[in-house]
Structure formats: C-alpha cells, structure tokens
From TrEMBL, chain A:
GO cellular component terms given for this protein: plasma membrane
Leader sequence segment: none
Membrane topology: Multi-pass membrane protein
Transmembrane segments: 34-54, 99-128, 135-156, 186-205, 226-251, 290-311
Keywords: Cell membrane, Membrane, Transmembrane, Transmembrane helix, Transport
GO BP terms, alphabetized: transmembrane transport
Protein name, entry field: Carbohydrate ABC transporter permease
Database matches in InterPro entries: MetI-like, MetI-like_sf
Family the UniProt entry places it in: Belongs to the binding-protein-dependent transport system permease family.
UniProtKB/TrEMBL annotation, chain B:
CDD domains assigned: TM_PBP2 (cd06261)
Keywords: Cell membrane, Membrane, Transmembrane, Transmembrane helix, Transport
Domain of life where this protein originates: Bacteria
Phylogenetic placement of the source organism: Bacteria, Bacillati, Actinomycetota, Actinomycetes, Micromonosporales
Domain ABC transmembrane type-1: 124-341
Organism per entry: Micromonospora musae
One GO CC term on file: plasma membrane
Protein name (Swiss-Prot/TrEMBL): Sugar ABC transporter permease
Topology term for the membrane: Multi-pass membrane protein
Cell membrane recorded as keyword: yes
Length: 321, 349
C-alpha cells in the first residue's frame, strides 16, 4: 500500500483546476458528494461493530431494553458481561476462557505446520531440478479449487475408523479423546491450507535471484543448506504474510472446527461456542456482545499490527496469480 | 463450576506435544537432508578416488540425487495433500453415488434428489442469489470507496476502517449484524439499529431474519460487509499502479473525472477487477458460517454449504451431503476456467 505524498497530491489538484465557474461549482459538488459518500460508507462499515462494542460494556437490563445509542445520554459502564462470559460458573454463561485456550491450542500448530511444509515444497518446486516438476506444481495449484467440503466426510471417517483396503486394516483409527482431538484439527487445517500456501510461497521463492542460488551451488552448498541459510531469511515477509493469513483463517474458522473438534469445552474453539450461543441464547445480548469481542480481539491485534504483511500477501496471492 | 486454570493444563500439554512434533518433524527432515546426502557425497567421493586410481570411467549420479532431495522436500506436503485432500475428494465423489450409509450404489438418485425436493431447490436458488449479489456489490463498494479515498487526506485510516471486518470472523460478524437486525415488539423500545431507524422514520419494526426472501438479502449484506475490504485493497493497489503519465496526459486533455474513471481507470484495472470478482464468487459459493450463525438455515435461508453440513453431519445422509459437495465443486470449475483463460490472455496480450 503506497500512499501519495501530500506534495504530489497538492500539485495534481492545481493542474486539475477547472476553467469556468460552472466547472468549479460542479467540481466542488463532485468532491462534496464524494466526501459524503465515502463518509457514509465508512459509517456503515464501522457503526455496527461500534454498537456491539459499546453494548458489551452496558448492564444486562440496559442492553435488553434500550438501544446502545442511549449510552451517550445515559452512560452506565460495567465489566460484568466480560467477567460472566469468560469465567462465569453456570453452563449457560459461556465459559469462554476455556474456549479461548482451545482457539489458541488449535491455531498455533495449524499455522506452523503448513508454513514449514509449504516452504519446503515451494523451494523444491522452484529451485530443484527433477522430472515432472511443472506438472506437480500445476497439480498442487489446481487443488486450490477443491472446496474443503469435498474432503470432510471421508476425512472424518479416516480419523474415526482408519483405513481398510479390501477388508484389511491398513491404518488404525486415531481414537482420540478430549483434548487429543486437537491433533485432528491441526491435521485437517494443515491439509486444507497447503495448496494455497505452496502457491503463495512459490510465488515469492521462484522470484529470488537465480544467480544467488547458482553461486551457492557452485560453492558446494547443499539444497537444505541453501534453504536454511539463504532462502528462509529472504522470504520472511512472505512467511509472515501467509502466517497472518492462516492465523486469521484458522482462528475464525467454524466449519472445520465444528466437524473435527467436536462441541465440548475440551476442544471446541471460540467460534463454535459463539455460534452455538447465538443459536440457543440468541437474546442474551449481554453475553453475545462481550463474547463476540473476546473472539474478535486477538485477530484484530494481529491484523492491525501486521497489516502491511497481510496486504502484501493478499496482493501477491490474488493479483500476480 | 468456577473457572479452574488447572483443568486447562491438558490442553497446554497437548499444545506442547504439537509443538514438539513440529520441531521434531521439520528439524528431523532438515537434519536428515543434511546428513544423508553428505554421507552419500563422501561415499561417492571415495568411489571417485577409487575409480580414478584404477582408471575406470567416472560414475555420474548427480541428477538422480537431485530427485531424491526434491522428494524429501516435497514429502510432507505431498503426503498430507494425498491423505487429506486428493483421496477424500475422490471418495466424496464416489459416496455421492451411494446411499446414506455408503453401502449400496444408487446411481444418480442423490443428484435427482438435488433437483426435485422443493427445499433443496430453494437452497440452490438462495446460493444463486448469493453468488450473483455478493461479488458484484462488494466489488462495487470496494471500487467506489477505493476511488473516492484515493489520495484523500487520512487515506490509510479511511482504508483501515473498511478493511477491518476482514479480521473479524464470520461468526463474529454475524453476531454484530444480528444485533443490528434485533427486534422487539412495536410497543417497546427497539434495541436493533435497523428497527430503530425504521421506527424513527414512522415505520413498523420487523422481525427481519424471519421474512423470506428479505432475510437472505440481509445475510448477504453481512458477507458484503466482510468482503468489500478485500475488493477495496486489491483495487486500490491496481489504481495506484496506473502509470502517472497516462493520468497526466488525460488531465491535460481536459478529461472530466467521470470520463477519467470510465476511460482510464476501469480499463487499466480490469485484470484486478476480474480477480476480485472471481475470488469473491468462489468464497461466496462456499459460505457457511454466516447462514449457520444467523439463522441456522431456517426460514428459507439455507445455502449449499450449510445444507451439505446438515445432510452429512446432522442427518447422517452421506450420499446426499456428498452430492451437494460435488455440486459445489462443479459450480466452482467454470469460474476457475474463466479466470485461467483470462490470465492466459493477459500473458499473451
């Protein structure tokens, strides 16, 4: 994201000066409407979140009887909702602290595994000569279009009953209980992330200067050594971009978690719990508002602090294609 | 049940196992790749020395080794892709021709069901509405906003505001908007923003999410709200990449902003525009979280992905669920082919 410097902007505005009075009026009107429209759009995009945010700090009876906008005329502030939704005793209160930990436990390995595996694969596809390399890359690239819905039923079966070929048990069932089910979720997320990850990282790695690789090869460096000492440091921005991408995706995912993590507080992440609360306790706004913010705050921090990388990755992944 | 930190310990333990596994697998692989070839090299060198000493022709094996190294680099990714994606996708395709328990072949019956049951047809129509509206409207908003704030003061902040919903989960966004759509009886004070606006304009408050087909449109609003930021960022970057001299030349010719937009901006950003629309179309086809959180697919709002989940994981209808998944896949293919053709044209043109 480049932003024009103020001097350039001022210069272009001057050369753009309309000649007639009518033109000037029209131009001012244009820029007025432009400003107005952009402000309206900005409002529509922020006010709903803002309203929820304000509401999460209002007492229960207030949320349920008056609109959040009355907060400004009658401000009443409480942390009760957060206390209740995070650490509450009753089963209806949310107990989100537990689910928050689940979200963390699911997300961290689900980011690291695809990151490492995709970097390795992307390096091989870009810089090691072997037969069928291009075909392999195209095949992995093409896998991006397979909706993960196509994999859900058999993958779940793979976890629960293992693999049998012609009546012979080739691989046993995973038979995971409670928090061990995290492993299933990691596995599923890693598989589903790989095509895009390989594609994105390949975009970066293949654009590294060939001379550099050649020089290293001539010096007798092996591929693993080149990968570790030359490639990895150079593609850190790309790794960060994909890392953020995958972090947001996994943290915010509902479908994969719903199927592979189960619904209990041993493994289910925040999204699963929130969706459940929105369904069964749809009018308990004091919990929903606070709960929604508990789930939003981590990705928001990650996003805001690393936006630069994220945007770069987004552009590399979608435009260069 | 007080929140007890000790009870959470198994989770951290599991997380630690996961991290240890990560270090072991990746570190082990790199180590293996470092040690084994070094060993081979030493052996080959020894053989070379022996060969040159005895005057025999020198063996050359370099190429084959490259292949082995590549295989190890690719092994984890290929293994996981095969187990987690390729085989399951093939199996799903097969399952779609079998009955609910996946024991008997039923031919095309599941696909017949797809187009004959009224409620499934409704689901397909809803998905069609989604995929027609979301990409177009989200792209339009993103484009308008990108053009309007381009080179404006506070551009970075203004863009962040629109972009921020991208960080919010679909579930979170659905709750945010459910709150906007919230309803209370018309003799009570409204707590939902939308009903408040309607009431203050003299209208009757409505149960927005219960009224078909309006509710589908209101769910679509959520998706547009999330995705417009993506469109805006990509298009904004494309707009900034338009060569300055072209813009300058047009300015000197006295082109109005309107003409500038249609004659210069639009043609220049066309590739980016297509990418955005295609990406959004695919994302929209797979939308699941919003519908599930906001209405759970009730009141005629269900879409393909949601119905697929219901059939396969709630009703145990593996055949019908798989048929829906395959149908989803089939719908994605033409979009992707279109994009690939476009990319190829660009490279040639």
């Amino acid at each position: 994201m480049t932003t024009a410097t103020p001097t350039i902007a001022a210069g272009t505005q001057q050369t753009d000066g309309p000649k007639s009075v009518a033109g000037r009026v029209r131009k001012r009107l244009n820029s007025r409407t432009a400003t107005l429209v952009s402000i309206i759009i900005a409002l529509v995009w922020t006010v709903p979140t803002f309203g929820l945010f304000i509401s999460s700090f209002r007492p229960e009876d207030q949320i349920k009887t008056t609109g959040w906008w009355t907060f400004f005329t009658n401000p009443q502030f409480t942390m009760e909702n957060y206390q209740e939704v995070l650490f509450g005793r009753s089963s209806s209160s949310g107990q989100l602290a537990s689910y928050f930990i689940n979200s963390l436990a699911i997300t961290i390995p689900s980011v690291l595994f695809p990151l490492a595996f995709a970097a390795l694969a992307a390096y091989a596809l870009a810089w090691i000569n072997f037969r069928g390399r291009d075909w392999l890359y195209i095949a992995i690239f093409a896998l991006q279009i397979v909706p993960l819905q196509m994999a859900l039923v058999p993958l779940l079966k793979f976890f629960s009953t293992g693999v049998t070929v012609a009546g012979v048990q080739v691989l046993p069932a995973w038979d995971l209980v409670d928090e061990q089910k995290f492993a299933q979720v990691w596995f599923a997320h890693t598989c589903f992330a790989l095509p895009f990850a390989v594609f994105l990282l390949h975009n970066f790695i293949s654009q590294l200067p060939g001379d550099l690789m050649e020089a290293a090869r001539v010096d007798g460096a092996s591929h693993p050594k080149i990968f570790r000492t030359i490639v990895l440091p150079l593609i850190t921005p790309a790794l960060a971009a994909f890392g953020i991408f995958q972090f947001l995706w996994v943290w915010n995912d509902l479908l994969v978690a719903l199927i592979f993590a189960g619904g209990g507080d041993e493994t289910a992440p925040l999204t699963v719990r929130l969706a459940e609360m929105a369904g069964t306790r749809g009018n308990e706004w004091q919990r929903l508002t606070a709960g929604a913010f508990v789930s939003i705050v981590v990705p928001l921090i990650v996003f805001l602090s690393l936006q630069r990388f994220f945007v770069r990755g987004l552009l590399a992944g979608s435009v260069k294609g | 049940m007080e929140f007890d930190f000790a009870e959470e310990q198994p989770k951290f333990l599991m997380l630690m196992y996961g991290l240890i596994a990560f270090v072991a697998v990746v570190g082990g692989l790199l180590l293996l790749l470092d040690v084994v070839p070094a060993w081979f090299t030493r052996r080959r060198e020894a053989r070379l020395v022996a060969a040159s000493a005895s005057g025999a022709p020198l063996p050359r094996r370099r190429k084959q080794r490259e292949g082995t190294v590549a295989l190890f680099f690719l092994l984890p990714a290929l293994l996981l892709l095969t187990i987690g994606l390729v085989i399951p996708a093939i199996r799903t395709t097969l399952l779609s021709f079998m009955d609910s328990g996946s024991t008997h072949w039923v031919g095309l019956r599941n696909y017949g069901w797809l187009f004959s049951e009224n409620f499934v047809v409704r689901v397909l129509i809803n998905s069609l509405i989604w995929v027609l509206l979301v990409p177009l409207v989200a792209t339009a908003f993103g484009l308008i906003y990108a053009v309007l704030v381009d080179k404006a003061r506070f551009e970075a902040v203004a863009k962040s505001l629109i972009f921020l919903p991208m960080a919010i989960s679909f579930v979170g966004a659905s709750i945010i908007w459910k709150f906007v759509y919230a309803y209370r009886g018309d003799d009570q004070e409204q707590i939902g923003l939308l009903n408040q606006i309607v009431v203050s304009l003299g209208g009757e408050p409505k149960q927005w999410l219960l009224e078909s087909p309006l509710n589908t449109l209101l769910l679509i609003v959520i998706m547009i709200w999330i995705q417009a930021g993506f469109a805006m960022v990509v298009l904004s970057a494309a707009i900034k990449a338009i060569p300055a001299d072209i813009v300058e030349a047009a300015r000197l010719d006295g082109v109005s902003p309107w003409q500038m937009f249609w004659r210069i901006t639009m043609p220049s950003i066309r590739p980016a525009l297509i990418v955005v629309v295609v990406t959004l179309s695919i994302a929209t086809l797979k939308v699941f979280d919003i519908v599930r959180t906001a209405t759970n697919g009730n009141y005629d709002t269900s879409v393909i992905a949601n119905e697929m989940y219901n059939q396969a994981f709630r009703y145990g209808e593996n055949g019908q669920g798989s048929a829906l998944a395959v149908f989803l896949f089939v719908l994605v293919i033409p979009i992707v082919i279109y994009q690939i053709r476009n990319l190829r044209q660009q490279r040639e043109g």
